[in-house]
Design brief:
alpha/beta; TIM Barrel; eight-stranded parallel β-sheet; two-stranded antiparallel sheet; 39% helix; globular
Length: 344
Amino acid sequence: MNYRLLGRSGLRVSELCLGTMTFGEAWGFGEGVEESHRVFKTFVDQGGNFIDTAINYQNGASEEMVGKFVAGERNRYVIATKYTLSTNPADPNASGNHRKNLMRCVEASLRRMNTDYIDLLWVHAWDKITPVEEVMRGLDDVVRAGKVHYIGVSDTPAWVVSQANTLAELRGWTRFVGLQIEYSLIERTPERDLLPMARALDIAVTPWGAVGGGLLTGKYRRGQEVPDSKRKDFNNFRLNDRNFAIADEVAAVAAELGKSASQVALNWVRQQPGVVIPIAGARTGKQIEDNLACLSFMLSPEHLERLNKASAITLGFPHDFLSWPYVQELVNGKTVIHDHRKIS
């Protein structure tokens, strides 16, 4: 396992992050303590130190297990958790990005994981309500109090993240060093704004969904519906002809390399520009072993190109417009400019 710096910070994290949404059985999927510990131990035995959870995962069971698993060696691990999502649908203040929910969630997560500090606290999703200055000042307060070391933001528009970090720098508050997004061969739309923004602002990216909810692993077949579960509707929208064609190309590359489809999908994400640290979730020890094996090889430029072509998207306006040769000539005249700073 190699290590990466988490964005504009000195924090060293493993090149894969262990996702723990499957630690627990309250949501109708996942595993109990024994198998979850096997997943955890397999990950850390290979050098993994970056663990991702959330206050609401498996109704709190995920944080509880993480706390138990790291006990005795707490300082060895970089534990990331999240606040925002509802923990009590009947309480209007038990969700959202606002200060009351932030403070409540931080205290609850600390108690549940039996720790004095959270290494990385994520804003789990943008609520579109709370003023950005309230969010950033609240996050800065928990950092200054020593309860949180670093902050990150998940599932939030690029313009909000840019506004937040600019405001934080202007006022001397803590800035986001991490960005968590869905990103995979079947979900490449972050390439329009989120990923260029992250590279420009030196924010590390920790993608979730790198294997497309299982579709890129060969788990699903054409005409098949996701089995009844809490995530059925969430996953069924992925099952379309375009995505199955991408999955077929992943399977073809995997067969040529003698590797698993999951490893190919993870490595495509890992090999994207910038600091990209995929979140690798697993329900069983066997699954995490397979995911970790992606670290033993790299995709060739030829294989990357095939996968890029199979999954290509249009960037839309203004990106495609600004790339037209006619527009480029209007903007730059006939001068050819080689800019090493180019980020998109």
